[in-house]
């Protein structure tokens, strides 16, 4: 079967909306209800965070969601249990995002096999750098048809972006500014960088993430790329939600309508 | 004095990919790539530059007060029936070995054109040593420190502030050294261009473990010369050091790594007992994983979540060890022991009463294992006395009143 991420970009090239949520948040068993609502109300892609005790690249909001999820009892084993038959209900591509240590401890091959078994399409591991991936782990990810999605930042050289593009499958995650997640930086300052990325004409689709929080920032980012990723703003929205379905509906229509 | 530069063919030094055996590497997010790459590609050429070496040497001599004495501890030797020497890093300016590294890194930061310095600290010794060199060079300094450590090492917090540094409490996780390090790394991600991160121990992404070990290697370089003068041989039978992340141990071992006849002993913090659930004895409790961008041994759950350690000593309260030490452990080159909070306290009191030296809580862990070594009267033992105990007086006083 063709990877669902590739299927998506084969038919949709603009305004692709990817929403991040932490698994097991706000409550342990909210993972599937959140994903179901995301699909129903129009998210094109779901990025599911695997909570970690020490999320180095994340700001306070996602850190706290991760801590809360762990307190709720979330773990990789638990997550795969929750995802056992999610493909009966959910068709959009799903990406797992998390730090390398839990994956390494689970066993990289066992992890990839499990992802393939439940129907995961891609993985984002911010602290698995390109060189380590290339030297050691690439064959395993490819064996299970999992796309490893790499990040590029405003400080990434053109040469390196091209290298990342050649190694990437699925899409490239363009971090809007050099920062941890959830920092409010002005989109306008990033225009030159977005423009530069666009000029490179990469073979992979590009989604812009970090600092995308509403309709305006989503549209601004989507003007330069195939779409954008929303994380912190969504976590904030569902943090105290009394009705997940309603909250997700309101949040997404606020972006897309 | 010069910084050890030749990696040679040592089995115990870093290889060209930044690994020690299967440990090490740089598991950094892309946001840190330009900074870490800049360091990786430049640190060896900067360190081997003669003007850099002259500056480093001059500051260590005139500002830090090196060489630090190698002191024959007569009464301690009588007690343990061996020839015990103390390498007096406690007599350095700012009171610990940490300053050897901060002097080296501030000179490096200048050459990289950085204007702003960040650091993490546990006991506050590295924070003070960083604030000190920033004052010396007129650079902005931000130090991250766990909020629990801010309480238990209050004098050092005051010193950092007096030296002009901003001390930012780390309130996530266990609120100790691990979390302070996370915050420092996050700061670096958010300030990718003008900032240098002065990491305080032989841990973190390559090239930090190697770079810090080289700056600290002045310790064993001096020990060799001093022992030769005092005993007729450069080699002791044992070198003993405590391990938080492993910088004082790396420095004390450095020039002995390939002299297999010298026994290297590392002492970790056993906390309330290795299996009490309140410990920081990483090699006994840890498994391989990634902490602070390095593949090494660390304490974690079956699910790969990093565990909150415990030690009475803020400088050893860390759930990992540097990759060089993980390799020394796994290869059997160094022997790893652990000392409990109580053993360390007893050793601190013992050194105070026998030698008139109040050691840092961290260094007391190394001293605490003298009783467990199979020593002969002719054995020459060097203990790295990594720091002085001023910062720990509160803890010591509390214990005294018990
Ligand atoms: C006096 C002293 N010794 C030892 C340590 C432990 O660090 P390392 O293992 O890097 O030497 C510290 C850390 O704060 C310290 O202050």
TrEMBL record, chain A:
Pfam families tied to this protein: Trp_syntA
Enzyme Commission no: 4.2.1.20
Active site: 47, 58
Organism: Chitinophaga ginsengisegetis
GO cellular component, one term: cytosol
Keyword annotations from UniProtKB, A to Z: Amino-acid biosynthesis, Aromatic amino acid biosynthesis, Lyase, Tryptophan biosynthesis
Protein name, entry field: Tryptophan synthase alpha chain
Free-text function comment from the UniProt entry: The alpha subunit is responsible for the aldol cleavage of indoleglycerol phosphate to indole and glyceraldehyde 3-phosphate.
Protein's UniProt keywords contain Lyase: yes
InterPro entries per the UniProt record, alphabetical: Aldolase_TIM, RibuloseP-bd_barrel, Trp_synthase_alpha_AS, Trp_synthase_suA
Subunit structure: Tetramer of two alpha and two beta chains.
TrEMBL record, chain B:
Residues annotated as signal peptide: none
Domain Tryptophan synthase beta chain-like PALP: 65-387
One protein family per Pfam: PALP
SUPFAM superfamilies: Tryptophan synthase beta subunit-like PLP-dependent enzymes (SSF53686)
Keyword Lyase: yes
Reactions catalysed, as given in the entry: (1S,2R)-1-C-(indol-3-yl)glycerol 3-phosphate + L-serine = D-glyceraldehyde 3-phosphate + L-tryptophan + H2O
Cofactor list: pyridoxal 5'-phosphate
Keywords, alphabetical: Amino-acid biosynthesis, Aromatic amino acid biosynthesis, Lyase, Pyridoxal phosphate, Tryptophan biosynthesis
EC category: lyase
The organism's place on the tree of life at top rank: Bacteria
GO CC terms in record: cytoplasm
Pathway this chain belongs to: Amino-acid biosynthesis; L-tryptophan biosynthesis; L-tryptophan from chorismate: step 5/5
CDD domains, per database record: Trp-synth_B (cd06446)
One MF annotation (Gene Ontology) recorded for this entry: tryptophan synthase activity
EC nos: 4.2.1.20
Record PTM N6-(pyridoxal phosphate)lysine, positions in chain: 98
Quaternary assembly: Tetramer of two alpha and two beta chains.
Main function: The beta subunit is responsible for the synthesis of L-tryptophan from indole and L-serine.
PANTHER family: TRYPTOPHAN SYNTHASE, TRYPTOPHAN SYNTHASE-RELATED
Family in the record: Belongs to the TrpB family.
Protein name: Tryptophan synthase beta chain
Organism: Chitinophaga ginsengisegetis
Gene behind the chain: trpB
């Amino acid at each position: 079967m063709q990877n669902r991420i590739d299927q998506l970009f084969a038919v949709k090239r603009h305004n692709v909306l990817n929403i991040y949520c932490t698994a097991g948040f706000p409550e342990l068993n909210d993972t599937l209800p959140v994903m179901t609502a995301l699909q129903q109300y129009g998210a094109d892609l779901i990025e599911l965070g695997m909570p970690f005790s020490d999320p180095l690249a994340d700001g306070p909001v996602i850190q706290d969601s991760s801590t809360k999820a762990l307190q709720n009892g979330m773990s990789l084993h638990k997550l795969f249990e929750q995802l056992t038959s999610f493909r009966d209900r959910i068709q959009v591509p799903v990406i797992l995002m998390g730090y390398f240590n839990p994956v390494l401890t689970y066993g990289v091959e066992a992890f990839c096999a499990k992802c393939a078994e439940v129907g995961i399409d891609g993985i984002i591991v911010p602290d698995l750098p390109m060189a380590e991936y290339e030297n050691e782990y690439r064959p395993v990810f490819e064996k299970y048809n999992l796309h490893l999605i790499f990040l590029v930042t405003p400080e990434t050289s053109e040469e390196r972006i091209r290298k990342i593009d050649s190694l990437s499958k699925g899409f490239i995650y363009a971090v809007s500014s050099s920062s941890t997640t959830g920092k409010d930086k002005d989109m306008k300052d990033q225009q030159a960088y977005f423009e530069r990325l666009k000029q490179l004409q990469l073979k992979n689709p590009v989604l812009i993430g970090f600092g995308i929080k509403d309709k305006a920032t989503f549209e601004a980012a989507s003007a330069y790329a195939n779409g954008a990723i929303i994380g912190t703003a969504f976590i904030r929205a569902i943090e105290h939600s009394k009705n997940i379905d309603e909250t997700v509906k309101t949040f997404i229509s606020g972006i897309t309508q | 004095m010069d910084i050890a530069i030749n990696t040679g063919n040592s089995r115990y030094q870093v290889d060209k990919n930044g690994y020690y055996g299967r440990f090490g590497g740089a598991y950094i997010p892309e946001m840190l790539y330009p900074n870490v790459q800049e360091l990786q590609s430049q640190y060896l050429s900067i360190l081997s530059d003669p003007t850099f070496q002259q500056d480093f040497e001059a500051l260590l001599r005139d500002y830090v007060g090196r060489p630090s004495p190698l002191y024959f501890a007569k009464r301690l030797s009588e007690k343990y029936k061996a020839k015990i020497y103390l390498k007096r890093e406690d007599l350095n300016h700012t009171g610990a070995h940490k300053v050897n590294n901060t002097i080296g890194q501030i000179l490096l930061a200048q050459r990289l054109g950085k204007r702003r310095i960040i650091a993490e600290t546990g006991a506050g010794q590295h924070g003070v040593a960083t604030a000190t060199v920033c004052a010396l060079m007129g650079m902005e300094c931000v130090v991250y420190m766990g909020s629990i450590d801010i309480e238990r090492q209050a004098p050092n917090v005051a010193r950092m502030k007096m030296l002009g540094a901003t001390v930012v409490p780390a309130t996530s996780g266990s609120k100790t050294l691990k979390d302070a390090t996370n915050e420092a790394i996050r700061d670096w991600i958010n300030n990718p261009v003008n900032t240098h991160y002065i990491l305080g121990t032989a841990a973190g992404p390559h090239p930090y473990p190697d770079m810090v070990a080289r700056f600290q290697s002045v310790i064993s370089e001096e020990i060799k010369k001093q022992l030769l003068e005092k005993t007729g041989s450069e080699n002791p039978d044992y070198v003993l050091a405590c391990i938080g992340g492993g910088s004082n141990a790396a420095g004390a071992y450095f020039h002995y790594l390939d002299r297999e006849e010298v026994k290297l002993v590392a002492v970790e913090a056993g906390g309330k007992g290795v299996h009490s659930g309140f410990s920081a004895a990483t090699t006994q409790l840890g498994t391989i994983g990634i902490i602070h961008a390095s593949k090494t041994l660390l304490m974690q759950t079956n699910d790969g979540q990093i565990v909150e350690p415990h030690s009475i000593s803020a400088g050893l309260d860390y759930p990992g060890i540097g990759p060089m030490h993980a390799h020394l452990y796994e290869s059997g080159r160094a022997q790893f022991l652990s000392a409990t909070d109580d053993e360390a306290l007893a050793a601190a009191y013992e050194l105070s009463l026998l030698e008139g030296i109040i050691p840092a809580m961290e260094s007391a862990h190394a001293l605490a294992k003298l009783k467990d070594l199979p020593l002969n009267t002719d054995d020459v033992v060097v203990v790295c006395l990594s720091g002085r105990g001023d910062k720990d007086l509160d803890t010591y006083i509390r214990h005294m009143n018990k």
